[in-house]
Amino acid sequence: NMRRSYMFGGAFVVLFIAIIVIIVVCVSSKNGWKKQNPDEPEFWEKGAVYQVYPRSFSDSDKDGTGDLMGVVDHLDYLKELGVVTVWISPIFESPMKDFGYDISNYTTIDRIFGTMNDFEVLVTETHRNGLKLVLDFVPNHTSNQHEWFIKSESKEGNYTDYYVWAEAKGFDKNNTAIPPNNWMSEFGGSAWEWSDTRGEFYYHQFLVEQPDLNYRSEHVKEEMKNVLRFWLDKGVDGFRVDALKYLVEVEDLGLDEPTDSDNPALLQHIFTTNQPETFQVLREWRELVDKYHEKVLMVEVYSEVEDVMRYYGNDSVSLAHFPFNFFMLEALNNRSTLTGYDIKDTISLWLDNMPEGKWPNWVLGNHDNGRVASRLGKDMVDALNMVVLLLPGTPLTYNGEEIGMEDTFISWEDTKDPEGCRWGRDHYQEHSRDPERTPMQWNGGYMAGFTNGDNTWLPINPDYEEINVALQKNATHSHLKFYQHVTKIRQEETFKKGEITFPTYDDSTFSFIRSLEGYPSYLAVVNIATVNRTVNMHLGANFPLPNEGEIVICSSTSEAKETPNGSMVSLDSLALMAGEGILLKL
Q1: CA angle 349, 86, 513 (to 5 degrees)
Q2: Residues 505, 368, 392: CA angle, nearest 5 degrees
Q3: 156-169: per-residue pLDDT in tens?
Q4: 183 and 325 share a domain?
Q5: Do 443 and 306 share a domain, yes or no?
Q6: Terminus-to-terminus CA distance in the chain, angstroms?
Q7: How sure is the predictor about 63, in pLDDT bands with cuts at 50, 70 and 90?
Q8: What CATH number is associated with residue 176?
Q9: At what angle do helices 276-289 and 218-233 cross, to 10 degrees?
Q10: Residues that are catalytic
Q11: Do the beta carbons of residue 80 and residue 484 sit within 8 Å?
Q12: CA 281 – CA 65 distance, rounded (Å)
């Protein structure tokens, strides 16, 4: 009887604990996100990833184009900035038809950026400064000047199948070869290009000069693993994988993709993206990377959220440490239509769909999209940097966003971006990515401190005398100092491990709370409106809030406020300037 009693009592305790766990999980799911693994974080979880676009960061040899030693010269700046990881866009040998994303040799540094010795110095100095270094990895395609393609076009041995080749479907009345299917390039037009040398079409998802590799070839897969090993052995700390969803296509190249039901001019890319074999290749790369100590694999995937989440893998199969989250970048593109609902929904979209136990990330800008100050307003630079830096997960910062750089007008004559050039003089401004790629503005002196040479590869923004690193370093309040302050705040336990909840948000206001038992809670508030407002944070709040909070930091544009950091303010009447972001300790 005693045994049955103990068994009954034990079962009751187990049932009781299970009920409590279910309640906690449900409440946590409803209110926000909570870190699942409280152990010591990996390096990419500790702080921001800072994207360096090397052409535009710093020029050390006076040729007008940024280079590796230019990055080395400013590693102390990145350390002071408070970022953890430096991610460098492509630096490999390339004809530069797409500025480095058309690679002709994966294991050679392009002479524009320097030498292999320069790279080794960069690795050493990055690590000496306590930073990590991540390289861009472009596996989907090579340059058509790559030795592999030249040999494949000539059908030399194993190279024959290194790329995606297909015979013509037929020939028209002019004896012009007809492509095997209707697949379209991301840059417009057919994705198939005829080779007179081989007498077949090759597939290119992007430029004609960027033929797609064939990952159904075991030789290609091994080649690319060797590329990863080469750079890992050089000491890099991981990779950002470019354009991953395009890696593999269906085997039957005679299949046409169906047209989009909403726009017949577009195709549903069911045969050219997110193929099962892509995930298998990624799995093999993750297994390779995991054999090295503390390495990260970040992947670029523009797709629907359900597809993007698949790149995390699951409990039994680990894939990317995280796929890039571009939903914030896409949603936050126009101040006139931006609302607090948009920001909250964009954050929840990722957190609610992310597999349990995985790590989020937030991308607010990059080299392919207009700068935050130009898209959303100068007054919102600090507020939005605060949001991405203090959300749970890894923030990604594009160089120059920390000082509020703006898009630069580029004339047709100065346009370099192939995407802009393709659209011609009348439409290049709608498509060119040059405006957000102009040189980093280091100071108000000669050539903005970017180079001591006579020219720059793209024009420097004329506003460099008002917006530059040196000026903001010396100012009492600045975007730069705000960014540095927030990166320090981010190191508090609440932001490392705490959960997130959303007390109130509406057309003009967005807010979130980070909290962790035993530590202070923090309330971040953003005024999205273009006018000053006084907000009652209790009105319409989703749960009770305290009566007041202590100002920790507020936007650099708010230096006129009579309530300095450390002041107590009422949440019933919180005064906010246009575009202001404010952080309160509760």
Answers
A1: 35
A2: 40
A3: 999 999 999 999 99
A4: no
A5: yes
A6: 54
A7: very high
A8: 3.90.400.10
A9: 30
A10: 242, 300
A11: yes
A12: 35
